[in-house]
Amino acid sequence: MTHHTFNSISGFHNHFGLPEPENPLFSIAHRVFSNETVNCDTAPLEEPVSITANFYTIGLKNIISGELIYGRTKYDCSKGTLLFTAPEQTITYKDLVASSESYHIAFHKDYLNGSVLLDKIKQYNYFNYYVNEALHLSPKEEELMKSIFKSIQLEYHNNQDEFSKEIILSHLDTLLKYADRFYKRQFLNREDINKALFSRFTYILETYYDDNHFEKKGIPSVEFLAEQLGVSHRYMSDTIKAETGKTAIDQINLFLVDRAKNLLLSPNMSISETAYKLGFEYPQYFSRIFKKKEGISPKEYREKFSVN
């Protein structure tokens, strides 16, 4: 496998045969080829190619065939795809065929200094989704996104002045807001997929409990559960939130409280033993979680529901 790491946007442009960026911290590229399709902007290679960039990227392509891989997960390509990557993410592709037109934005975190986007971009979880969780655009959404890309491109190639960066960031802010809206639409439209993921999430927790791993290994992290599902932890959390109205952490705590209610009614198990069996290092923390969810303490629950 061939691997490329890009520390600069200039190096990225040079590798893919793009013009030198007009700003070392920000670039936008629009490529149109005379041929109907092109193989991932590079010559075809027999082996997979992986890319790591130390800056943010946004790419809009109509992907026709091939493979995109992030970690152990494979992305099933389809048309109208918007891909987001955060710094130091690695994408692997093989025999990727995309349509003759594509847009690409790259920007360093430093470009956002002094703007509201510096903090706001951290709220957009989709920059940390796996590639197979890319945004699939409807035709109308794709046209809207293209219009924003064109507005950014127009300002980017305009004579730079004191307003240029502010205008570009304003357009970029709009693009990211629309992406957030379209992702939420995609979550709603994938209701069956969301239900299936949440069912698998619950099954993993149940298996973990049945195998006594809570007591042996502690409460599983969100990252661990996402890895078992083969998705990014941010995507898993957003899917569960869309499906249940609660975060993944809330669902883990609800699962623990549900199991605790059964254990607390066992006459041979103390509250501390119940806490340790559920993976809590400190019984006081278990009692706090339990009371927050049930409105009463474990002791009060036991006294209220135990059979005399």
CATH class of the largest domain: Mainly Beta
Give me the count of strands.
8
The value of Rg in angstroms is 24 Å
Which fold name fills CATH's third level, the topology of the largest domain?
Jelly Rolls
Q: Describe the sheet with the most strands.
A: 8 strands, mixed
The helix content is 40-55%
User: What is the CATH-assigned architecture of the largest domain?
Assistant: Sandwich
Mean of residue pLDDT values:
82
Give the total of domains: 2
- Number of helical segments with 4 or more residues: 12
Approximate strand percentage: 15-25%
SSE class: alpha+beta
Low-confidence regions: 35-45, 69-78
Morphology: elongated
N-to-C SSE string, H for helix and E for strand: EHEEEEEEHEHHHHHHHHHH
Terminus-to-terminus distance: 67 Å
Could you explain how this protein is built, in words?
With 308 residues, this protein is α+β, with helices and mostly antiparallel strands. The chain has 2 domains: 188 residues, Jelly Rolls; 114 residues, Homeodomain-like (Arc Repressor Mutant, subunit A, Orthogonal Bundle), CATH 1.10.10.60. The longest helix has 26 residues. The termini are far apart.
Describe the structure concisely for a colleague.
This protein is an alpha+beta fold. It has helices at 9-15, 117-120, 139-156, 164-189, 191-210, 213-217, 222-229, 233-244, 248-264, 271-277, 283-294, 298-305, and strands at residues 2-6, 26-38, 49-53, 56-70, 73-76, 81-85, 89-107, 135-136.
Write the layout of secondary structure elements.
Blueprint: E1 2-6, H1 9-15, E2 26-38, E3 49-53, E4 56-70, E5 73-76, E6 81-85, E7 89-107, H2 117-120, E8 135-136, H3 139-156, H4 164-189, H5 191-210, H6 213-217, H7 222-229, H8 233-244, H9 248-264, H10 271-277, H11 283-294, H12 298-305
Parallel strand pairs: 1-3
Antiparallel strand pairs: 2-7, 3-7, 4-5, 4-6, 4-7, 6-8
Helix pairs in contact: 3-4, 5-7, 5-8, 7-8, 9-11
